[in-house]
């Protein structure tokens, strides 16, 4: 059994003070729920990580970076290393988000280097893959996913595959309000699991959590989380408000309990 995991990707939103307020609201909304069998991760901007780590002690929330540089240190103005994230208290890091790939020139090669750097520092990567609308319309979705997974996870051991989180995020669904249908998400997730089995072995592939991202909302999470190979969500817009994020997590856990 894989424990479902929900990650809030705040992107370039929220200060340290905002992060503290969000965590307090999250705690208030979830205090009567008991220990849910679900993992919760929050990825604030770099400047809010320390405040989020401090505020989330004892709340069950783990903190993630949204990106990292693959070098350990050096003359890389504006960059943050895996060790720095780890020292600030982060446990996870998002790597290869489509906004990084599309707006900041990230490639499968840089994703691979970042995954290696994250592992070396003891961070767990949340590796994002997904096709553009053009690629989907050309019928290339599964080929693109193969390339991104093969290249991005090159060199990972089976144990590391088992521990990391793979996020299927169709680029056309991110921030557009248009989520993948259950059939589209199901096809991609099942394909990803099959490839992980082929490339890294069944035992490890079956432990790896594959989450869906792209316009996840309280009213569409149940159709997605009901799918066999969907183990949670990476939530952007709907995570900015603690109330809607908690509602997503609650609806998903209710669906899974059925
Ligand atoms: P969205 O973003 O939920 O706003 O579509 C998801 C993501 O970019 O991770």
* Rounded average pLDDT: 96
List ligands, each type once: 2-phosphoglycolic acid
CATH superfamily: Aldolase class I
How many strands?
Answer: 8
Helical content, roughly? 40-55%
Please tell me what the overall shape is.
Answer: globular
CATH class: Alpha Beta
- Decide which structural class fits the backbone: alpha/beta
Could you spell the SSE succession in H and E letters? Answer: EHEHEHEHHEHHHEHHEHEH
Please give the order of strands in the largest beta sheet: 1-2-3-4-5-6-7-8
What is the domain tally?
1
Unreliable segments of 5+ consecutive residues? none
Rg is 17 Å
Biggest pleated-sheet summary = 8 strands, parallel, barrel
CATH architecture assignment? Alpha-Beta Barrel
Report strand %: 5-15%
Predict the CATH topology.
Answer: TIM Barrel
In terms of quaternary structure, the protein is single chain
Work out the helix count: 12
What is the CA–CA distance across the termini?
15 Å
Explain what the structure shows.
This protein has 258 residues and is an alpha/beta fold. It has a single domain, classed as Alpha-Beta Barrel (TIM Barrel). It contains 12 helices and 8 strands. The protein has helices at residues 16-30, 46-55, 82-87, 98-103, 108-121, 133-137, 141-152, 158-163, 182-200, 202-207, 221-225, 242-257, and strands at 5-9, 39-43, 61-65, 92-95, 124-129, 165-168, 209-213, 232-235. It has an 8-stranded parallel beta barrel with strand order 1-2-3-4-5-6-7-8, surrounded by 5 helices. Helix 1 packs parallel to helix 2, helix 5 packs across helix 7 (141-152) and helix 7 (141-152) runs parallel beside helix 9 (182-200). The longest helix is centred in the C-terminal third of the chain and has 19 residues, at 182-200. The mean pLDDT is 96. It binds 2-phosphoglycolic acid. The site of 2-phosphoglycolic acid has 13 residues, from strand 8.
